[in-house]
Amino acid sequence: MKPVTRRNFLHRVPVALSAAAVVTACADSDPDAPSAVSGPGGPVVISTWQHGLAANEAAWKVLQAGGNALDAAETGVKITEADPEVSTVGIGGRPDRDGIVTLDAAIMDGAGDCGSVMALQDILHPISVARRVMENTPHVMLAGEGARQFALAEGFTTTNLLTEESEREWKKWKAENPGYRPPINVENHDTIGLLTLDQDGHLAAACTTSGAAYKYHGRVGDSPIVGAGLYADNEVGAATATGWGEAVVRACGSFLVVELMRQGHSPTEACRLAVERVIAKNPDYREIQVGFIALAKDGTTGGYCIHPDFDYAVYTADAGNRMVVPDSKIPRNG
Length: 334
Ligand code: ASP
Prior knowledge:
Blueprint: E1 44-48, H1 52-64, H2 69-81, E2 103-109, E3 114-120, H3 126-136, E4 141-143, H4 144-153, H5 164-176, E5 192-197, E6 203-209, E7 230-233, E8 237-243, H6 245-250, H7 253-262, H8 267-281, E9 290-296, E10 301-305, E11 312-316, E12 320-324
Parallel strand pairs: 3-4
Antiparallel strand pairs: 1-5, 1-11, 2-3, 2-6, 5-6, 7-8, 8-9, 9-10, 11-12
Helix pairs in contact: 1-2, 2-3, 7-8
The structure holds aspartic acid.
GO molecular function: hydrolase activity, acting on carbon-nitrogen (but not peptide) bonds, in linear amides
Organism: Neolewinella litorea
Pfam family, one: Asparaginase_2
């Protein structure tokens, strides 16, 4: 497995604001990576970024043992949540601008049930708390201290999520940014969103993140919002998002991808059209990254993004677990 890419986003030169919302350039692929992926039904696992490879492995084991899509999705993303080397999810995730790690997570099954937690502190596995919200409460979303109290009442224990390295980086950021403004750029991301299709044809989606680095305290991104960060419908397929959450929320991104598949678009085409919608709603799109991945109920997969640095992991029975570099709206040298 390739190591997780650590993105030195703080040193990136900001890209100038663009007023235009139309880009004609298209298609940018890594010649070493498979350019298209499809499979004849389940099981299939697909997830965002390089850390998706390890998450896929865990999810695949559940499916191979006859487990269902929901269990597989939860099990998969828990690997990423527990990895302190991943600086965008769970323990080791970058804190908000006050130095507090707050986590967002959501889970959804293809039958329509869902649960989420927002701005949750001190809990190692927010995805499992989200699942408890779904299964043990009459609600869909719990936020902040209420979510934390619920987790404790459900038997979760507290963990210090701020690692020494994260704290050191945050202090450096604070010293170098007296204006105290969170960075908005193409590299402030790397949520894990993971989609599963089990042998019975059921779909599930899970999405978990520490959100945008050095965000305002209390900020919630797209990841725990059903329809924005993730969506699953057994009739059609599932989708999840990564990138600048505010932009994804404005377009109801993952719901849009699923609805486009419902209209007959392939997963890749649905993701491409959803990225175009994001671009239309966000004039600053050149400064931000947004990527979608999708899994249709027939097992076909796809993805698309604004900038070419996005990749995702796909696990199928015929081709194993591998990385895919999707096409992007802005070409590599664009
Ligand atoms: N979508 C996430 C958020 O805005 C960030 C990410 O993808 O890492 O919170």
